[in-house]
Design a protein that fits this description.
Layout (H helix, E strand, L loop, with lengths): L7 H7 L4 H15 L5 E5 L5 H8 L3 E6 L2 H11 L5 E4 L11 E6 L10 H14 E12 L1 H8 L3 E6 L2 E10 L4 E12 L2 E12 L3 H10 L3 E7 L12 E7 L3
Parallel strand pairs: 1-2, 1-4, 2-3, 4-5
Antiparallel strand pairs: 5-11, 6-7, 7-8, 8-9, 10-11
Helix pairs in contact: 2-3
Amino acid sequence: MKSYADFAYIYDRLIDENYNRWADYIEEVFRRYSEKTSLVLDLACGTGTLTTILAKRGYDMIGLDISPDMLSIAETKRGSLPIRYICNDMTDFELYGTVDAVICTLDGINYITDTKKLKKTFSLVKNYLNPGGLFVFDINSKYKISKILGNNCFVNEHGNIFYTWENIYSPKTGVCTYQLTFFVQNGETYDRVDELQKQRAYSQKSMEKMLSQSGLTVLGCFDGLSFSPPDKKSERLMLVCKNIC
């Protein structure tokens, strides 16, 4: 996955997510499955919105992202909060010590299209988790990537941003390529921003197998921000794993 550049500066205007709801869910996971969670690593933290919310709720947060532009925006949200941001690739990162939990939200894991790199990411998570620590993340389901996003084209207008989103899905590799073109209003003219992204569709079975091979125990796989089991048409899978040493 390429690092974001110009896209970083319009990201927050495009992502229509209730981050407080995400924070509520993550805290509920911590309450259900962990005795104590204090220090949390947020992988692929982007512009740091969720990182900041969790820090305000009392967690010691580390945010990690490959994009310096995203992290530059995250820094502006930090204020006096003691958040530490690290610019690094989540498939090859280093920490100074271990953490109580690792989170990765908004389908960040799908952007790792190489299974060897994904296994390495899981191994690194295992390595940096304290005994009993949790790994909580979501993925776009195989159904969503292959059937809903698939070989489709979307056109949308979001405030002063108009964009097209063209997808090419390969059933052979499970990779969906997203060609995004944004036109951002700048006075009486529009600035064009082009972004190419790729996500890989992973089945629940293959994901759980790789996690197990990395030494992580899968406690549950859920439908979106719930604790109900997923079905064939679930669009987002939430996985909760534990480092049981």
